[in-house]
Write a structure and sequence with these properties.
By secondary structure, the chain is mainly α. It folds into two domains: 93 residues; 80 residues, no CATH class. The chain is built from five helices and two strands, in the order αββαααα. It has a two-stranded antiparallel sheet. Strand 1 and strand 2 form a beta hairpin. Helix 1 packs antiparallel against helix 2 and helix 3 packs across helix 4. It is flat, with a radius of gyration of 23 Å.
């Protein structure tokens, strides 16, 4: 089973089409991943119970059907894409565009890891500030208010008004949260 590739000149999106993953195979891979996630939902729903209890549906009743729906839809996408008479064999993403994706992916992964150590609000302040400087080329006069006010407003919204606790770190612990 190979990966379809197409040789063409640059198109309007900047994808060269030379090498790389074709759109057809990208759709199939994502469809299979989503199918497996739906299968995970089904298996866990069966574990907690999908039937009816004396007081109503068990905890897995609705998630089971959502997982089933996800599996059916993703299987449909995989099968129709795989057996298509006119598959899209153009490059899914060119090397230049892939570098842009990675320039967001790796910092986002660092952000998620930082949440564990410093909490979501401090990590968000740094994430917003770094992105504003790195990709937006903004000055400190714009970075500081936005990167500090956004997490502060989110803290007030979630923690104070809606009473929804989000991951907190040592800074919030200093203030008693």
């Amino acid at each position: 089973m190979g990966v379809c590739m197409q040789d063409s000149s640059n198109d309007s999106t900047g994808n060269s089409g030379k090498g790389g993953l074709s759109t057809k195979w990208a759709e199939i891979i994502v469809g299979v991943i989503i199918f497996l996630l739906g299968l995970l939902v089904i298996v866990d729903s069966v574990r907690v119970g999908i039937g009816w209890a004396p007081d109503g549906p068990r905890a897995g009743y609705f998630p089971f059907y959502i997982g089933l729906f996800i599996c059916v839809c993703s299987a449909w996408i995989v099968l129709t894409t795989f057996f298509s008479k006119k598959p899209d064999t153009s490059a899914f993403v060119g090397p230049g565009k892939f570098k842009l994706v990675l320039s967001v992916l790796f910092p986002a992964m660092a952000f998620v890891i930082a949440i564990y150590f410093v909490g979501i609000y401090v990590a968000s302040a740094f994430f917003i500030g770094i992105f504003m400087r790195w990709l937006g080329k903004f000055g400190l006069s714009k970075i500081l208010p936005v990167s500090l006010l956004t997490p502060t407003i989110m803290f007030l919204l979630f923690e104070i008004w809606f009473l929804v606790p989000l991951p907190k770190g040592p800074l919030e612990a200093m203030f008693g949260y």
